[in-house]
Each structure stands twice: as structure tokens, then as C-alpha cells.
């Protein structure tokens, strides 16, 4: 067994698009159990155990690349699922403690969504309720990152384990959504989730009855919860303000909700539109630039990892018609969406 990478860390050590190093250790542990030496794969991914042992975080791209290489070496299409299955509330550190001692399941999931940056600044988690149905989703900020489909299935498996820790081992979602092509064998997915798994979806999510959000968490300690909340607020109060990061998060969320107007993003951030524009300019970017980068990333991911038609993708991204999407994609990449997809699928 490889030495465990189990160091405490501060949110200050996690820059944009980086994640806690915990998942790297899990990837290596699984490879060892499969009889595969992880050192060569780490080297191919551009790192080694010595470097990781001194690190508290790794880039989101590094984790995706390593997971993709590991899946290929192990000939295991569901490798991301295996990594996510190892997640426990304890492995989530301070945030896991807050979830464990939240008053209700809904409070725990909202805490995870609000403070996810403590562990992962490469993606966002969002909780949504539509009538009697609740959805907790996972959305990478740069969905064209290598191995993003494995990232997503890892995260959804981790969310499932977290909910089973809070609700009991027999809890199952109503439905699982994954933004990846269906694997040759879906049994590992249905076996773990014990629910219908829908592949080639717009985003990664668990779907379950909204009434679950009101369920009290047995054994939750309000004193521990208050103490952990204070520590998290202390961490977050010393993080430098990054408007670009906040806009990116808000735009990503609103693409899922199909609402990406600048005034709505400014309102969500409690900033006047002109102030938002000035602050983004000071950081060397614009709202249009961030929105286009986010749209392009999602477009690439859906083209590469699903069989969605251009009309459906253009609708997801809020284009007026497929021709407008094709025109924008060609402007961004120099290729049509169909040509880009064909090139990716040929690799």
C-alpha cells in the first residue's frame, strides 16, 4: 500500500481549478489493488508520488488526466466510479463534519454546495428543487478538461455515499444522470447506485424526492455544527475576492438553469452591472468572455462525451437555433461542431 496523503489544509491553498489531493491517493490505491504500479502512470500524467506527498492540492486537469490514464491502463471504463465509491464523510474533512452534524439532509447538501470550494475549485455542486423532485448536480467549470466524464461519475458516486451516510446504507436515488457515453457494461453503475442510470445527459446529477431534504439527521450535534461553521467562516473570510471566479460559477449555474443574462448574474452576486463590468475589466476579462468560454467548454464536453444532436446542444446553451450555435462554435474554434466531434471520436 502506498503511503497515505492525509494532511490538513487551508482553503487559501486551493486556487481556481485545483482540488484536494485526496482523490489522487485513491486512484493510486485502486491501481495497486489491481496489481498495477502507479508510478509509471503518475509519470505519464506529469507528476510523481514525491511531488504529491509535498502537495496539498493538484490541478483539476491533473486529476482528470491521471484518472483517464488509470482507466485506460486498467481497461476499466468505470474507474471514476471506483474512485468515488471510496469517498466518506470523514474524507471530506471539515466539510464532512459540517454535513454530518447539519440539522437536516437539505441543510447538509446546501452546506456542501455553499462550501465546496474547501475541497474542489474545479467544479460546483448545486441543489435544486422542482415541485416534489430534488436534484443535486455536479458541474465542472472547464468541462472540456481531459477525463471530465470520469470526474463527473466520481463526484456523483461520492454524493451517493455521502447521502447514504446521512440517510442510511439502504438509501437509493430515483435516477442518476451522467454526461458520458454509455459504457460497454453498465452493470457496475446500476449495481452501485441501485437506480436507473441515464447516460449522455446534459450534466451529472442525482435525482430524488424533495421530501428527503426535510429528513432530520440522526445524532447531529448542534454544538459541533456551530463550531465547524465558525471555522469555515474564518477560512473563507481570508480568501481574496475573485470576481471572475464568482461570475464563472454563476454563469455555469445559469447555463444549467438556461438563464445566463448579465443582469441576472450581477443580481445574483449583488453587484450592479456597471460595477461588475469594471471589476472584471480590472481582472483582465469581460462577462462575454467568461460566458463564451463556459459555453464553449460545455459544448466540447457534450460533443465529445455524448451523442446529443446539434439542435439539443444549441438549446442547452441557449442559442436561438442550431445555425447560431454552429456559427459561434466555428468562430471560437475554427471548426464546425460536427467536424470537431468527428475529430475527437477518431482519437
From TrEMBL:
Q: Show the coiled coil region(s).
A: none
List the Gene Ontology MF annotations in alphabetical order.
DNA-binding transcription factor activity; transcription cis-regulatory region binding
Database matches in Pfam families: Arabinose_bd, HTH_18
Keyword list (alphabetical) reads: DNA-binding, Transcription, Transcription regulation
Tell me the SUPFAM superfamilies matching this sequence.
Answer: Homeodomain-like
Q: Where is the HTH araC/xylS-type domain?
A: 245-343
Q: What is this protein called?
A: Transcriptional regulator
Q: Which organism is it from?
A: Methylobacterium variabile
Amino acid at each position: 500500500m502506498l503511503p497515505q496523503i492525509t494532511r490538513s489544509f487551508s482553503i487559501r491553498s486551493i486556487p481556481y481549478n485545483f482540488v484536494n489531493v485526496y482523490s489522487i491517493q485513491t486512484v493510486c490505491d485502486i491501481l495497486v489493488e489491481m496489481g498495477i504500479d502507479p508510478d509509471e502512470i503518475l509519470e505519464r500524467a506529469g507528476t510523481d508520488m514525491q511531488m504529491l506527498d509535498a502537495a496539498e492540492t493538484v490541478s483539476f486537469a491533473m486529476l482528470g488526466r491521471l484518472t483517464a490514464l488509470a482507466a485506460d491502463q486498467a481497461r476499466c471504463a468505470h474507474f471514476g466510479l471506483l474512485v468515488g465509491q471510496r469517498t466518506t464523510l470523514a474524507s471530506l474533512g471539515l466539510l464532512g463534519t459540517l454535513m454530518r452534524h447539519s440539522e437536516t439532509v437539505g441543510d447538509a447538501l446546501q452546506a456542501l454546495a455553499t462550501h465546496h470550494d474547501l475541497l474542489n475549485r474545479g467544479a460546483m455542486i448545486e441543489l435544486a428543487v422542482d415541485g416534489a423532485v430534488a436534484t443535486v448536480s455536479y458541474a465542472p467549470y472547464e468541462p472540456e478538461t481531459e477525463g471530465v466524464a470520469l470526474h463527473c461519475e466520481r463526484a456523483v458516486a461520492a454524493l451517493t455515499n455521502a447521502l447514504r451516510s446521512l440517510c442510511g446504507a439502504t438509501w437509493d436515488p430515483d435516477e442518476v444522470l451522467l454526461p458520458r457515453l454509455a459504457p460497454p457494461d453498465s452493470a457496475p453503475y446500476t449495481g452501485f447506485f441501485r437506480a436507473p442510470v441515464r447516460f449522455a445527459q446534459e450534466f451529472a446529477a442525482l435525482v430524488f424526492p424533495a421530501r428527503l431534504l426535510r429528513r432530520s439527521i440522526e445524532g447531529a450535534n448542534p454544538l459541533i455544527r456551530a463550531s465547524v461553521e465558525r471555522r469555515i467562516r474564518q477560512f473563507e473570510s481570508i480568501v481574496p475576492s475573485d470576481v471572475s471566479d464568482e461570475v464563472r460559477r454563476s454563469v455555469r449555474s445559469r447555463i444549467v438553469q438556461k438563464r445566463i443574462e448579465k443582469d441576472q448574474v450581477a443580481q445574483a452576486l449583488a453587484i450592479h452591472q456597471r460595477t461588475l463590468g469594471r471589476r472584471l475589466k480590472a481582472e483582465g476579462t469581460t462577462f462575454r468572455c467568461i460566458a463564451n468560454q463556459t459555453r464553449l467548454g460545455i459544448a466540447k464536453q457534450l460533443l465529445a462525451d455524448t451523442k446529443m444532436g446539434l439542435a439539443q446542444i444549441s438549446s442547452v446553451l441557449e442559442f436561438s437555433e442550431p445555425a447560431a450555435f454552429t456559427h459561434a462554435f466555428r468562430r471560437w474554434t475554427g471548426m464546425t461542431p460536427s467536424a470537431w466531434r468527428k475529430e475527437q471520436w477518431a482519437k
